[in-house]
Amino acid sequence: MEIIRDVTGLRPHPFPVVALGNFDGVHAGHQTILRTAIERAHAKHGTAFAVTFDPTPAKVLAPDRAPRLILTPEDKLALLGESGIDSVVVLNFTHALSQLTPREFVRTYLVGHLGVRTVVVGHSVSFGHNRAGNATVMAELGRELGFDVAVVGPVKVAGMEVSSTTVREVIAAGDLRTAANLLGRSHFLSGPVIHGRERGRKIGFPTANIQSRTECLPPDGVYATRLILDDGSHASITNIGMRPTFAEPERTIEAHIFDFDRDIYDREVRLELVERIRPERKFDSADALAAQIGADLKRARAILAPA
Question: pLDDT value at position 284?
Fold first, then answer.
């Protein structure tokens, strides 16, 4: 997959088809948009582009109200690549870019720089100054500027309409099973393994302390998880929270990996969050905590066992 951050002077591509969106989460709805763009481009022996933004518009225009991102920019690019898209155009979103009308944005970037032949958007797309552009406006611009428009959605999974907002809501509720259905994969966080206080090791459950770069996290609690390393997936159990039994001063993410005894400090890892086992709570002693962890381990192994 080609990643393009400067579209000025971009070389011509055969029959360019553009999927436009923020694509935070690359969820089931996004996957349908991307798949539509790929099919339309490849049917004409053309090039399928995803056009997205970094930072996202909300981070620039309303940073105090911007939603927590489901994916880091790097993880979003990785998942876009896994979709089979040929190229991703990452536009640097600035206040100047936000001032472009929908027509100016489409004429300058999609038509002028990319030479688009077909644009694929979700039914709830918004673009241009004051979010004045929508699917209807895109269709009108297509007729005016000479490209086709395909509008996708709404996409529903198990009766729920898929959107990044809905994904965030179910993650915030700790419902990782529903989140996985909407995403088409387990929600994950990513970041390096750092040195912690080694509380777990002292009570017989060594943990990997993960410094998450992912913003969208579930509520504090204990989770059945899978830690992804270069050599594959490792079943694990993870505590997210303040460790109230030890009165820790800051929130941590600590994963105990089953049947694992390797040094992974400073390694970049991905932690898949499969199911919430219980909320975090304070125990009267380290022994009581250790006993509860034993029960949690049994539950996590059952959740993660092959079907």
Answer: 75
